[in-house]
Amino acid sequence: MNIDNYTRLINKTEDYIEINLDKQISLSDVAKNVNISEYYFHRLFSKYSNETLKQFITRIKMERSAIYLAINSEISITEIAFKYGYNSSSSYNKAFKKHFGISPTDFRKEQEWKRNSK
Predict the structure, then answer these.
(1) Which residue among 11, 42, 87, 115 has the highest number of C-beta atoms inside a 10 angstrom radius?
(2) Whole-angstrom distance, CA of residue 40 vs CA of residue 63
(3) What are the percentages of helix, strand and coil residues in the chain, rounded to 5?
(4) What is the reported pLDDT for 58?
(5) Mean pLDDT for all residues in the chain
(6) In the chain, pLDDT over 70 holds for what percent of residues?
(7) How high is the pLDDT of residue 27?
(8) Which domain holds residue 23?
């Protein structure tokens, strides 16, 4: 597989993840979406990526949820957790803090402070 085909594969994978942010996404789900075996998808993804598929999915969910946190201050963190496929706000909080080094609540406060100080 050349780099252009890999780029298309990753783009299609990212599109699938974007559409399914509210769900638990497995290797099987993603491989079916791009019409290749789990084994082959895993090999390709590992060959060209510096993160696992699980890390990739988590990163996309964390990045998108951080944007959502920053611009939608009226929506609760629990609602955001469910929107991004987490079963509870505590599991979301743990994943968010692990990824960004700050809790979602503190991140939101920081973003509001930045907006208000401009």
Answers:
(1) 42
(2) 27
(3) 75, 0, 25
(4) 93
(5) 91
(6) 98
(7) 94
(8) 3-116
CB 66 within 8 A of CB 107: yes
State how far Cα 103 lies from the chain centre: 16
d(CA 22, CA 29): 14
Cα separation, 24 vs 12, in Å, equals: 17
pLDDT bin (cut points 50, 70, 90) of residue 11 is confident
pTM metric for this prediction: 0.83
Mean pLDDT score, 20-35:
93
Q: Scanning the structure block, which residue is given the tokens 């598929």? A: 53
Total structural domains within the chain? 1
Please give the Cα distance from 91 to 107 (Å, whole number).
16
User: Which CATH number fits the domain that encloses residue 38?
Assistant: 1.10.10.60
Q: Residue 35's Cα: distance from chain center in Å?
A: 22
The whole-angstrom separation of Cα 42 and Cα 48 is 10
Which amino acid would we find at residue 36? I
What's the rounded Cα separation, in Å, for the pair 69 and 43? Answer: 34
Spell out a b/e string for 41-79, using b for 16 or more CB atoms within 10 Å of the CB, else e: bbebbeeeeeeebeebbbebbbebbbebbeeeeeeebee
